[in-house]
Amino acid sequence: MYFDTIAAVATAPGEAGIGIVRISGEKALEIVDKIFRTKKERKLSDFQERRLTYGYIVEPDTGKKIDEVLAVYMKAPYTYTKEDIVEINCHGGMIPVRRILEIVLENGARLAEPGEFTKRAFLNGRIDLSQAEAVIDLIRAKTDSSFDVSFNQLEGGLSKEINEIREILLRMLANIEASIDFPEEDIETMTYEGLLDEGNNVLKRIEKLLDTVYTGKILREGLKTVILGKPNVGKSSLMNAILRENRAIVTDIPGTTRDIIEEYVNIKGIPLKIIDTAGIRETEDVVERIGVERAKSLLEEADLVIVLFDVSKELTEEDMEIARLVKNKKVVVLTNKIDLPPVVSREEIEKILPGKKIIETSIIKGEGLEVLEDSLKEMFFAGEIKIKDNTIVTNARHKSLLLKAKKNIEEAIESIEMGMPIDCIEVDVKDCWENLGQITGDTVTEDIIDKIFEEFCIGK
Ligand code: GDP
Ligand code: ZN
């Protein structure tokens, strides 16, 4: 496959220690030889490859120095793109990187499209599609755990599992072909039994991957957690206590609206996206401020609700209303202010919210918070989650392909059980194989590939 030579700034815009301009393609070294000189007037190609070389970017005609840099030449195929790559490390900041990029473009490179370096790594066969998608997930990861999952995917964790399942499907197809070629009775019975075993095996493995989707979603987006309670029960105090102990992971969260504050925290490895009205003065209570309807829709989306009651005061109609709102949700109940003389008993709370986990807290004294954090973890991940060695599906595209593949294999199994003609079964097995192949990019179409890489940033 022939590709032209592309270039882009690989580092983030703005002021920084260094900036990197990356060039990939056959002409990478030739271009840099025109514009790079050391103090002793030597070119980059005068040096050993993969050696970071100190020098200047200069204007080819005048020899005028543009910036002081370190440049390195990495020879194909052992590079990010599997092509020749030159990277120029210059001073960080808008001007140096822009000037160097301009001069690189003037001397024969084309500005890279978003994700084009990674796209080449895929098209040149260094990584498959799910690995390429992992690259963007790594860059976007907001939590340690979602980073770990993406890293596993980049290392080929998902690809390996998909490829193994597809091998079984290929074996099934081969058996089907064989029995079409030799359609004697006894071969056919054997074929059907074998197909059924293998079909069930495929189904089991696809289901196992699909089982990870919910975990994947939580790791990626955070567990949507709503804090609910009437005014003055201690919601803001809880939010602050959680934030204090579990450093917010990101601040630039899209979707933060003025009436709902979302904060990401990391509790015992679980990313929580806490939705609260903290930060809004005066009326802070969700129900009161944004109305019952709005609270209901917030609750609908919630993976978890933390409900607070103030046990130093009699329960009110408002408490009852809140209890009614959450009775069908995953709930942790905090009976707060246990440091004060109690007025409400645990039994009373159990009565209005039967079967829910109740934790006694004094947020102001930090009591019960550790228990809260432990129970959150228990509720969502029974047992230890070993993200690092687990293949977890986080990508919506993968999920929908797995669902299609599941349907295909289920239909194939049904046809086998019903003793349908073998070529009917063949179609479903083939579709299953193809749908799974779209995950790794083996059977994917060009427009899907384009769409995936469009989401990348320039320079990656
Ligand atoms: P919100 O309206 O639900 O957000 O409640 P706040 O977090 O603003 O707390 C209301 C008041 O209750 C504040 O004065 C807090 O200091 C106090 N408070 C919160 N938690 C406790 C607690 O566990 N014990 C006691 N005694 N006071 C608390
Ligand atoms: Zn508050």
Automatic annotation (TrEMBL):
Q: Which cofactor does it need?
A: K(+)
Q: Which GO terms describe its biological process?
A: tRNA methylation; tRNA wobble uridine modification
| Record key words, sorted | Cytoplasm, GTP-binding, Hydrolase, Magnesium, Metal-binding, Nucleotide-binding, Potassium, tRNA processing
InterPro entries attached here?
G_TrmE, GTP-bd, GTP-bd_TrmE_N, GTPase_MnmE, MnmE_dom2, MnmE_helical, P-loop_NTPase, Small_GTP-bd
Q: Binding positions for GTP?
A: 232-237, 251-257, 276-279
Q: Where does K(+) bind?
A: 232, 251, 253, 256
Name the source's superkingdom.
Bacteria
Query: In the Enzyme Commission scheme, what number(s) does this protein have?
Result: 3.6.-.-
Example GO CC term: the record gives:
cytosol
Query: PROSITE patterns, per this entry?
Result: G_TRME
Q: What class of enzyme is it?
A: hydrolase
Entry's CDD domains?
trmE (cd04164), TrmE_N (cd14858)
Q: Which amino acid positions bind (6S)-5-formyl-5,6,7,8-tetrahydrofolate, per UniProt?
A: 22, 87, 126, 460
Q: Does the keyword Iron apply?
A: no
Q: Which residues are listed for Mg(2+) binding in this entry?
A: 236, 257
Q: Which GO terms describe its molecular function?
A: GTP binding; GTPase activity; identical protein binding; metal ion binding
Pfam families found in the cross-reference section: MMR_HSR1, MnmE_helical, TrmE_N
Q: How is the cofactor bound?
A: Binds 1 potassium ion per subunit.
Is-annotated flag, keyword Transferase? Answer: no
Task: Tell me which residues make up the TrmE-type G domain.
Answer: 222-381
Q: Spell out the subcellular localization from the entry.
A: Cytoplasm
Q: Which family does it belong to?
A: Belongs to the TRAFAC class TrmE-Era-EngA-EngB-Septin-like GTPase superfamily. TrmE GTPase family.
**What does this protein's UniProt record list under function?**
Exhibits a very high intrinsic GTPase hydrolysis rate. Involved in the addition of a carboxymethylaminomethyl (cmnm) group at the wobble position (U34) of certain tRNAs, forming tRNA-cmnm(5)s(2)U34.
On assembly, the entry states: Homodimer. Heterotetramer of two MnmE and two MnmG subunits.
User: Per its record, how is this protein called by name?
Assistant: tRNA modification GTPase MnmE
- What organism, scientifically named, is this protein from? Caloranaerobacter azorensis DSM 13643
